[in-house]
Amino acid sequence: MMRINHITAILSKNVKDVIKNIQVLILFVVYPAVGFIMTQSINVEKGFFISVFATMHFVFTPIVVSAHMISEEKEKNTLRVLRMSGITSTEFFLSTAIFIIFLDCISGSTFIFMAGEGGIDPGLYYSGAIMGSAVSIILGMCIGTFSKGSSAANGLAIPLGLFFSFLPMLSYFNKGLESVSKYLYGQQVGNMIYGQGWSAETGIICLGNLVLIMGLYVVLYRRTKTEE
């Protein structure tokens, strides 16, 4: 059974850790900053630039941040301490996910202001943002659990993050590529941010990606517990 005090304790710990880590904090502002510069410099295709950098913000950033956080916990051996303290894997996952999604959505809200009035549907935008962040967090946790240290985790998280977040942009220019990338959650998140509504295909693809990555995380988590 989940305990609120366990979740709030981990949330408090995450806040303190991130405040001390400027590299992680920068990740939450880099794409909104680049998006702002591009939209102010090039007024043409403003919606395109916003959708590109917002997609990267909600797909790339959670992957790298969650991978870094998990791998750092492993390096400091605090994961084992947390488990011995009675904190379950579900409590740890929820607290980490809530923390990253909250920061991601707060910083990502700047894209709505960049688009101007009537430029972005907030409901569609945040539903895509939360979906993208949630799947990316689980993928990042897979990377952090699999990696031996934070350096190895970053080395794997960055290229994977770029793959899932950069591919939607490339698909705008190559329809053949879109026929493949549409099966990845990053493409579906990009479509929603660009203004396409939820559809049966979007739901099935996002759910399928979530189930596959969650299954991978369960396998890696059990392997880590066995090794310990």
TrEMBL record:
Name-wise, this protein is: ABC-2 family transporter protein
Its ancestry begins with: Bacteria, Bacillati, Bacillota, Clostridia, Eubacteriales
The portions of this protein that span the membrane are 21-42, 48-71, 92-113, 125-146, 153-173, 193-220
Q: Which domain of life is it from?
A: Bacteria
The protein's UniProt keywords, in alphabetical order, are:
Membrane, Transmembrane, Transmembrane helix
